[in-house]
Amino acid sequence: MALPFEGFYTKAQLTRWLTAMPKRFSCRKFSGSADVSQLSALTYTAQRVNLPGIRIAVVPKGAQDLVVPLPLFPRFENLTQYAVIFAKKDRLDAALLAGISGEAFNLELVSQGLQGCWITGNYRRMTAMEHAQTDEQVMAVMPFGLPQNKDGASVIKRKILTAFSPDDPTLWPYWAYRAAEAMRSAPSAMNRQPWKVSYTGSTLCFTGNKLNSIDSGIAVLHIESALAGYQRGWRLSTDKKSLLVKVTDSDEPV
Q1: What is the CA radius of gyration of the chain?
Q2: Is 6 helix (H, G, I), strand (E, B) or coil?
Q3: Helix or strand or coil: residue 196?
Q4: Minimal CB count within 10 Å: which of 104, 137, 165, 239?
Q5: What fold, for 11-153?
Q6: Structure pTM?
Q7: 109-119 pLDDT, tens digit each
Q8: Burial code of 83-118, b = ≥16 C-beta within 10 A, e = fewer?
Q9: What is the DSSP string of 119-171?
Q10: How many other C-beta atoms are found inside a 10 Å radius of the C-beta of residue 142?
């Protein structure tokens, strides 16, 4: 598996997304829509965050016809706008890259005072496919807009950091701890956060329940954002089940 995200995003982009993370939450209730200037900026942004084989289409209306309500789940309110995350059908790592690109777009929403919500199941695929190009498949959709509750991030529940690691992250170098904390803030399907992270031999190891998945891609984008400004290198583990990252220029106390 190639690692096309390595070095793809600029330090400025990654820093902006890291800043947006504490304010980001999965929003289902909207008070309004993005305005014309915001939509224009998002359309431009969608082009800049797409990794190879991924495309994000910004759709200015029709979200109310896209989402399928599910029993026992909170309902969406005031849906209008949405994005569709597409991947080329022949892209073997499509889910991982879609998660990375889509979460980058999601954090750009937050930077503009908007919020979105990842949806990978309960939507009408035929509606989403209306915006597809040749040989593309839908990976996820993302309704977005102005949130009713601007303080929604304050009630987010996440696992404690030690739940992700067999050892004590407070004993790691700061860059590794910082990256793990950013991963901890990442959302996932059903809030399961199915990841593990460990540090050994100067290397941080990330393992997802399934590496080629939307959830893993979201978490990897959070880790990469936390390492903006560090000289770093990523590689795939020998068994192809984990991603390894090592910082080579850190001059900070352990």
Answers
A1: 18
A2: coil
A3: strand
A4: 239
A5: NADH Oxidase (3.40.109)
A6: 0.94
A7: 999 999 999 99
A8: bbbbbbeebebbbbbbbbbbbbbbbbbbbbebbbbb
A9: BSSSB-HHHHHTT--TTEEEEEEEEEEEES-TTGGGG-----GGGG-SS-GGG
A10: 25
In the structure encoding, which two tokens stand for residue 58, read together?
């910004």
Indicate where the chain has its CATH 3.40.109.10 domain(s): 11-153
Cα distance between residue 176 and residue 165, in whole Å: 12
* Nearest one of 70, 22, 49 to 187, comparing CA atoms: 22
CA distance 231 to 245: 10
Residue whose structure tokens are 């919020």: 115
Which pair of structure tokens corresponds to residue 231? 């000289």
Task: Look up the CATH superfamily of 161-247.
Answer: putative nitroreductase (tm1586), domain 2 (3.40.109.30)
Helices (H), the chain: 11-20, 36-49, 94-111, 125-129, 174-184, 214-226
Q: Which residue carries 């977005």 as its tokens? A: 144
Contact 29, 148 (CB under 8 A): yes
Backbone angles phi, psi at 19, to 5 degrees: -65, -35
Structure tokens at 137: 């498949």
Kindly provide the b/e burial profile for residues 217-243, where b requires at least 16 CB atoms within 10 angstroms of the residue's own CB: bbbbbbbbbbbbebebebeeeeeeebb
